[in-house]
Structure formats: C-alpha cells, structure tokens
Design a protein that fits this description.
This protein has about 750 residues and is of the alpha+beta class. It is about 25% helix and about 25% strand. It has 15 helices and 33 strands. The strands form 8 sheets. It has a 7-stranded mixed beta sheet with strand order 4-7-2-1-13-17-15. Strands 16-19-20-21-23-22 form a 6-stranded mixed beta sheet, with helices on both faces. Helix 6 (about 355-375) crosses helix 7 (about 415-430) and helix 9 crosses helix 10 (about 500-520). One of its GO terms (biological process) is peptide catabolic process. This is M1 family peptidase. Keywords: Signal.
Length: about 750
C-alpha cells in the first residue's frame, strides 16, 4: 500500500511538473540546462577549454605616420592570418571601426533624440547623432593586395570589410595580404570616441590617443563563426591574438607611448633620456622622470619640423594603440609581480599636474599587484597610463585616462578618487579582456563587470580612505529599485542596453553580484580559488559566459545556477520581508505531556494591525507532548522526550517567517540583538528557498532573550527595501536611507 501510495504521489508530481513545463515554468533553483551551450570537445562541461579547442591568429607589420598639421593618419599594414580552425575559409572579415564616423553611418542614422528650446549647441555634435561639423571621418581604403601585389576583391559594409580569397584557406594554412588606408583623426571633445585628439589653445598643441586606427581582423571561433556584428559604438571589440611590429612616424619632439616594447630608444631619445629610461627599469621605490615638466613645457614653445620613427614590438596581444604629443611629461618605475618586472609608465601634459605625477604610476603599480594576486602574474613587459581629458579606455599595455586638477592645480578628494579609480580600472583591463579575451561586442559584463569588481577590490585593499559604494551591493540598490519594465538582464547583447542603464548593467551590477558571491554565498577562499581558476584557464583564449559560470561551479563545488539565473538572466531584485516573528519558551506548568494543546500563558506578542509588533508581551508557552508510538514506525527504540524537554529548558525559541518580495532568491543574513546588549550574525544559505521561492519559515533556538532582529544588517545583499527587514517594526525612515545619508 505504501509503495502504491508513493507511486500515486510520484505520478501526481510528474503530472504537475509536466503541466508547469508546458506553461514554460522554470523554478529559480532549476539548473540552467538548455540555457547554456551544449558542452563539446572545444568547450567542456567543466568550463575549461576542451582537448580540441582552437583559435585563430593574426600577425601585423604596420607603418603609420601622424601629421601634426592636418591631424591625418596614413598607414599600411601586412597581415598574416593563420587558419587554425577545422573549417576552410573562402573570405576574411576585417573591422573598420573608424567608419563609425563616416557620413551616413549606422550609429548616427539610428540615434534617437528630441529637440527643445535653449539646449547647448553641442547637442548637434556628439549627443544627438545629428552632426553639424566640417569633419569628414571614416577610412579611405587605398588598396587591399595579396603578397604578390595583386588586388584582392573586397566589400565594405559600414564598419566591416570582407576580403575574398583567391582560393579557400584550409586548416593549418596561412594567408598574407596588405592593406593601406588614411583617415582624419577626430576631436574627442566634439565626437564621442575612444581615441582622437585633445587640442590645447593656450600653447597651440595636441595630445593624440590613437585607437582603432588600423583595419583589424575579426574573430572567427567555434561559438559563432565570424564575429562581424557592426560596430555601433557601445558594444566594444572581439579581437585575435598575434604579434605586432609597428613603426610610428611623428614630429621629432614628440614622445610616443604604445603597446609593446620600444626597440630603438637611442634613435628617438636624447642620451640623457636614454640613461633615465634605463634607470627607471631598475627603480622600484618611486618613479623616475624621463621627461620632466620643465622639459615638456619648453618643447611646447618650439615645434620641430623634423620627423622621427618610433618602433614597437609586441607579442601575443589582441590589439595595438599609441599616444603621441610634444606636451608629454614621462615618468616610469619597475614593478615586481612574481618573476616579472614590468615597467609602469605615465605620460601626461602639464595640465595633469600636480595630481598625475603623484598618483598615476603608483595606481598602475597597485593595479598590477592586486590583479596579479587574484588572477595570474602580469605577463607583459610594460603598462602605460596616458592622460587626456574625459577618457577612460583600454588597450594591451596602454590606456587613456581622464581626471585633472583645475587651472590653479587644485583638486578635490573626489577628483583624486576618480583618477585613481580610472587608472586602476583601465590598467586592470589588461587582464580582462586583453588577456582573458572575451567578446565585448556580445557581453560587456565579461570584461567590464569582472574588471569593475577587481577595481573595487584594489581600492578597498590599497586605498581604503577612497573606498566608496561603486560596484558594491549597497551601491547598486538605487538601480535595482528602478522600474523593472525598463531594465534588461545582464545577459543582454551590449548594443541592446539603454545608454542610461549601460553603466549599472555592464559594470556595477555584475561587480555587486560578484561581491555577494565572494563575501556571502561562497566565502572569500572558495571564490578566490575559483575566480583564479577561470582566469588561468582562459588566459590568452576566448571564453564565453558559460565557461565562466561552469568554471566557478567546477572549482568550488557550489551549485550556482540559481545565482546566475537570478542575477544575470533576470531583472529581479532582493527584497526580503521579515513578515512575522513568534517567540516561545517551554511551558513549565505541571501538565499532562500527552495533551495536545495548552492555553497561552501570556498571550501572543504585542500586535499591530493583527501582526506581532514587538516583544513586550513576552513569549508564548510551548508544551512538548510525548512522541506517539505510531511515529516510531519500525524502530524498536524510543526517543527520550524528557531529555529533549530538559535541553530546551530556559531556551528562547523564535519562529521567523520571510517573504521574497523582490523575486531574487538570496541568502539570509540575520543580526540578533540580545537583552544583554550583545549581538550575533547568523547566515542561512539561499537554498532555504528551494522548495518555496515565495515564503519560508524557520525556527531558531537561542540561549538569551532577543530584543531586536535585522535582516541584512550590513547591506551586503543589495536588499532594495530595508524598512521591512526589522523586528520590532520601525516607523522611521528605512535603514538603507539612513545608511546612504551617512
């Protein structure tokens, strides 16, 4: 009969599950299953690269000249493309990112906006997509030729160029071809780009930060073939690793910083500068000035008409960028990470001082050391931070950063915080995505979110006086409180996220989620090991979201599907309501232990609107009856009911009911305050919700009497409404509001 009943119950459950499945129901603790790609020999179920994992490679030899009079770049490149895929390729795709500034480009054509009276004139430049300017942007492709000089058929589609091959490029083969181009560098005060130039009218000079300046190979991989989605401006780049040899011709009084190692310092620097440069490579305690402010200021007044060519080599990088100006002050110092000693270098005009000479290179050092400890030792030989106004953009070994003092050289603590944060963040991008090479066109959070998390950790550890709520659970609450109908999940393609929500969605919400994962769900030790495992597995490779999700579970033995489903695939938020509290103590009246009910001695807790409001009415008495014989089943022994009563004598028993208002399942962090003034933090795993995602009740036994209960006392869960987190209930403003007001 028991077996028949069990079968009936099982059939009923299966029927119920089937009905739910037909309705598209998915429980918050169900495995992600079909939401993730099927594991294969390229990418395993553990999240590691498979035995047949492959990726393409592209090597570049480039010559480029920067005309300081016309702001035009003229370049040519030879690309050797290696087909390591199992597929024969009939054509290749290149990215023409500068075409985002070409006439009738897709970005400006699809930009939306409205006009209202008394708006700034700049609305008709970068803000609206309706550009009123004489600037003509975009590439002029002069030729595409094979190694013998024969023209190759090519087709330009907005920001992509297809090059047709004379014959299929088979597995294991390589193809060499050449491209020549020109384009007009843009004023990044007018156009919202990632490079460009800044003009300084006081001394009639420029700072150039040259990015996306050459046609670059698209990624071809096992996940989607060619990643040739158009560049619309928000979704960044998917790029191929390779080796670079680049010659950059500029005015002879310019200083150039770039991806890679300078090959010819004696050709482009003075004898004294070479000596300083060599000394910096051996100096670990403070920066060495290779070009001082006085020397840079002097060069601003006398513009050279001669040219110099700087040559840089870089191995196993996915991109190449450079900066050039006669205004640059240059300082550098060596940094020790493991067995490596990269050279941290800063380039900045005098307008950045005194802030930059104090902080930039030190921030590079702090970023390299902290990130290396959490991932892998920084493998590249150099790391540059270059200053120009209102930028924050990353490339292998070099980044462009804003934040400067006012004209008097004064700056606030906020400006200091912003500078340190942007340098740490952009230098940190060397790890994600320059080395752990995710697809930014698809998944901004895989580099921006992970990097914001480590930026936050660097500030917390190295700059505790500057640490704020950026990228923390507390900091993300205002965003999470917002209108869910207007939100997108983190797992949304970059270009499909609203501009106003892009920062929280790609940067700070993933960072806050990882903070909760580290501090509350997994614990620092497990999380740090799993995170490092992911970084080391996928260094110099192309990971996808599933590889990250699977690796963190594989390396920790923590089932996190509920976490990814809630934080990354939904727009739910955390809002836990401590809906009810009941307090019991063991009934001490002499009574028949077999009786089923005992009338309350002091009645229920004080109530308001029919619900318990505080502890003033004392506990309810709790009578424990003897265990009925039938409950022992086949066991011949009997529980010692009196021993149980004895252990509970004098204890306080609390029954708490929690409601999940926000929809996002979460661990419970409970702070108990006792009558003697002492406190205790108790942590309950999120799995408490696994059989009821909406409401759970749990019993706690305490030696001491409780006077106050708070859920999420330290704002570590990103709970959006904390006024319902306390007992006794409070009539004042929510704890979050008071916390934020501090």
């Amino acid at each position: 009969m028991k077996r028949i009943l069990a079968c009936i119950l099982t059939l009923g459950m299966v029927s119920q599950v089937s009905a739910q499945a037909q309705q598209g129901w998915k429980g918050k603790f169900e495995q992600l299953g079909e939401m993730l790609p099927t594991p294969n020999s390229y990418r395993t179920a553990s999240g590691a690269p498979g035995q047949n994992y492959w990726q393409q490679r592209a090597d570049y030899t480039i010559q480029v000249e920067l005309d300081d009079r016309t702001q035009k770049l003229t370049g040519s490149e030879t690309i050797t493309y290696y087909n390591n895929s199992p597929d024969a390729l009939n054509f290749l795709w290149l990215q023409l990112d500068q075409n985002i500034f070409a006439p009738k480009n897709m970005t400006s054509e699809t930009h939306t906006g409205v006009v209202k009276d008394s708006i700034p004139a700049s609305f008709f430049t970068k803000a609206s997509g309706v550009v009123v300017s004489d600037y003509v942007g975009g590439y002029t492709i002069q030729y595409v030729k094979d190694a013998s000089g024969k023209e190759l058929p090519h087709t330009i589609n907005n920001t992509m160029m297809r090059v047709d091959l004379p014959s299929p490029l088979k597995t294991g083969e390589k193809f060499t071809f050449a491209v020549a181009w020109t384009y007009n560098e843009y004023n990044h005060q007018v156009f919202d780009g990632r490079g460009g130039y800044e003009y300084f009218p006081d001394d009639d000079n420029y700072v150039y930060t040259c990015a996306q300046w050459f046609p670059r190979m698209c990624v071809y991989d096992d996940y989607q073939g060619w990643q040739n989605k158009q560049f619309l401006g928000q979704g960044e780049f998917a790029l191929v690793f390779g080796n670079y040899k680049v010659k950059i011709t500029v005015p002879s009084d310019h200083i150039v910083g770039a991806t890679g190692v300078l090959q010819n310092p004696k050709d482009v620097l003075t004898k004294e500068q070479v000596e300083r440069f060599d000394r910096a490579k051996k100096t670990f305690d403070k920066p060495v000035f290779i070009v001082t402010q006085e020397e840079a200021t002097q060069k601003e007044k006398t513009k050279s008409t001669k040219k110099s060519t700087w040559e840089f080599h870089a191995e196993n990088v996915r991109d190449f960028a450079f900066a050039s100006s006669r205004k640059f002050i240059w300082d550098a110092q060596a940094v020790k990470v493991g067995n490596n000693t990269p050279l941290a270098q800063s380039l900045y005009p005098k307008e950045g001082n005194p802030l930059w000479e104090k902080e930039s290179t030190q921030a590079i050092r702090n970023a390299l050391e902290l990130y290396s400890s959490r991932t892998f030792d920084y493998p590249y030989p150099v790391a540059y931070s270059v200053h120009t106004a209102q930028q924050g953009m990353e490339y292998p070994m070099i980044c462009f950063n804003g934040e400067r003092p006012n004209k008097k050289g004064e700056y606030s603590k906020q400006t200091l915080t912003d500078l340190v944060s942007v340098v740490v963040h952009e230098v940190g991008h060397n790890f994600f995505p320059m080395i752990v090479n995710s697809d930014e066109r698809q998944w901004s959070w895989m580099d921006e979110g992970l990097n914001t998390f480590l930026e936050k950790e660097t500030i917390r550890v190295r700059y505790p006086d500057l640490f704020a709520t950026h990228g923390t659970p507390k900091g993300i609450v205002p965003f999470m409180r917002g209108d869910k109908s207007q939100m997108r999940p983190i797992m949304t393609t970059s270009d499909n996220i609203r501009r106003s929500e892009f920062g929280p969605n790609a940067y700070t919400k993933p960072s806050a989620a990882l903070t909760i994962l580290r501090e509350t769900v997994m614990g620092p030790e497990l999380f740090d090991k799993a995170f490092k495992e992911y970084a080391q597995r996928w260094a110099f490779k192309h990971p996808k979201p599933a590889d990250f999700f699977r690796t963190l579970e594989d390396a920790s033995a923590v089932d996190l599907d509920w976490f990814w489903r809630g934080w990354f695939y939904s727009t739910d938020n955390v809002d836990v309501d401590l809906a009810e509290v009941k307090w019991y103590t063991l009934n001490t009246e002499k009574a028949d232990p077999e009786r089923k009910e005992v009338k309350a001695k002091k009645g229920d807790l004080a109530t308001k609107d029919g619900k318990p409001a505080d502890f003033s009415q004392g506990p309810e008495p709790l009578t424990l009856t003897n265990t009925a014989e039938k409950l022992n089943g086949e066991f011949r022994s009997h529980p010692d009911d009196n021993a149980v009563r004895q252990k509970l004598q004098g204890k306080n028993i609390y029954q708490l009911r929690f409601k999940n208002i926000g929809g996002l399942v979460t661990p419970l962090v409970i702070e108990w305050t006792y009558k003697d003034g002492s406190k205790e933090i108790e942590r309950i795993p999120a799995e408490i919700w696994r059989t009821n995602e909406n409401e759970v009740t749990k019993v706690f036994i305490k030696d001491k009497e409780v006077v106050n209960i708070v859920v999420d006392p330290n704002a570590e869960l990103a709970d959006v409404e904390t006024s319902n987190n306390t007992f006794p209930k409070r009539e004042t403003a929510s704890r979050f509001d008071r916390f934020m007001a501090k």
